[in-house]
Design a protein that fits this description.
Layout: E1 5-11, H1 15-26, E2 32-34, H2 66-79, E3 83-85, E4 89-93, E5 99-103, E6 108-116, E7 120-122, H3 128-136, E8 140-141, H4 144-147, E9 157-161, H5 165-174, E10 180-184, H6 194-201, E11 206-209, E12 212-218, E13 225-230, E14 236-240, E15 243-246, E16 250-252, E17 284-286, H7 298-318, H8 322-330
Parallel strand pairs: 1-2, 1-6, 2-3, 6-17, 8-15, 9-10, 9-15, 10-11
Antiparallel strand pairs: 4-5, 5-6, 7-16, 12-13, 13-14
Helix pairs in contact: 1-2, 1-7, 5-6
């Protein structure tokens, strides 16, 4: 059960949140994690809950399922005393201290320090089969670096959807493993920077389907192809493929903050100092994909969760809560 006033509240339940919880618990900060509720777009555990095989997380030489990794992290945090509440934080008040948090269960709690680790969600095309195959590990992904090296994608024709720098990076990465990479883009030119676009267009393994949109993903248990619609005349056709990577951006989960933390232009939480997790509000820290639009990896998120917990511990040591200070004076 959550107390009325918390020392550290961690919002989120991905690698950043659970790592922060492990460090905060071992530091005797008695943290509570608000892991969130199941919704159409997100489940507790974040994007890794939709990843079937993880091969690049240190310490696991054999492929590990995303769900298992998240369960192990959560179990480790709970072992050290972390309390877990399966609710969302719907709104925050960071203008006064202690901070006030409003939960989806209707509770109002206060916190001396807050770690925001709510992650980011991939932007999808909104197709039924796309969502189904992404959730089941059927060859649809939003992260080439995470999944592209898996055996199922090797020597396959792979489709990348998008036209920005992220799509270019995904496509170039996939050329290491694919027999061919087909970029599907709605327009007749990329939005990506010229240097990235030129690099892709000059690669012998890359083909571009201009003026085309994916309108269906084919396959029952695993993707077998995609249906394309010409954005000029509406005609449709199918192409075979062994995987599809959607690279049309991510949306950080920051709407609940109500504009009370400084954000970058792309919506991610701003951390004014390099290699730090402090935000624009003293006592509030950010970790993981909610503040990282560049790396977006489980291991980098976990590292930043460690950083946030250490910074929260040090901040609390220098900004003792009034109640704690009073108690300390009574025993002096």
């Amino acid at each position: 059960m959550s107390k009325t006033r918390e020392s550290v509240v961690i919002i989120g339940s991905g690698p950043a949140a659970w790592t922060a919880a492990v460090y905060a618990s071992r530091a005797k900060l008695d943290p509570v994690v608000y892991e969130g509720e199941i919704s159409r777009d997100m489940v507790p555990g974040g994007q890794l809950m939709f990843t079937t095989d993880i091969e690049n997380f240190p310490g696991f030489p054999e492929a590990l399922g995303g769900t298992e990794l998240m369960e192990r992290m959560k179990t480790q945090a709970v072992r050290f005393g972390t309390r877990v509440v399966s609710e969302n934080i719907d709104a925050v008040e960071f203008g006064t201290h202690p901070f006030v948090l409003h939960t989806s269960g209707g509770a109002r709690i206060t916190a001396d320090a807050v770690i925001v680790a709510t992650g980011a969600r991939a932007n999808w095309l909104g197709l039924h089969n796309e969502e189904r195959l992404a959730r089941s590990g059927g060859g649809v992904s939003s992260c080439a670096v995470c999944d592209g090296a898996l055996p199922a994608f090797r020597e396959q024709r792979l489709v990348v959807v998008g036209g920005g720098d992220s799509a270019m990076e995904e496509a170039l990465y996939l050329t290491k493993f694919a027999s061919e990479v087909v970029i599907v883009h709605r327009r007749d030119s990329f939005r990506a920077s010229k240097v990235m676009a030129d690099r892709v267009l000059q690669h012998p393994k890359v083909k571009v389907e201009w003026n085309a949109a994916v309108v269906d993903v084919l396959g029952d248990d695993f993707i077998t192809g995609v249906r394309l619609r010409d954005t000029r005349d509406g005609s449709e056709r199918e192409i075979a493929c062994g995987g599809m990577f959607v690279a049309i951006g991510h949306t950080p989960n920051t709407s609940f903050l109500g504009g009370q933390l400084a954000l970058h232009d792309n919506g991610y939480i701003a951390t004014p100092e390099s290699w730090r997790t402090v935000t624009s509000v003293p006592g509030v820290f950010a970790a993981g994909d909610v503040m990282d639009s560049y790396y977006r990896q489980a291991i980098s998120a976990a590292g930043s969760g460690c950083m946030a917990a250490l910074e929260a511990e040090r901040w609390l040591a220098h900004h003792a809560a009034p109640a704690d200070a009073a108690a300390a004076g009574a025993h002096a």
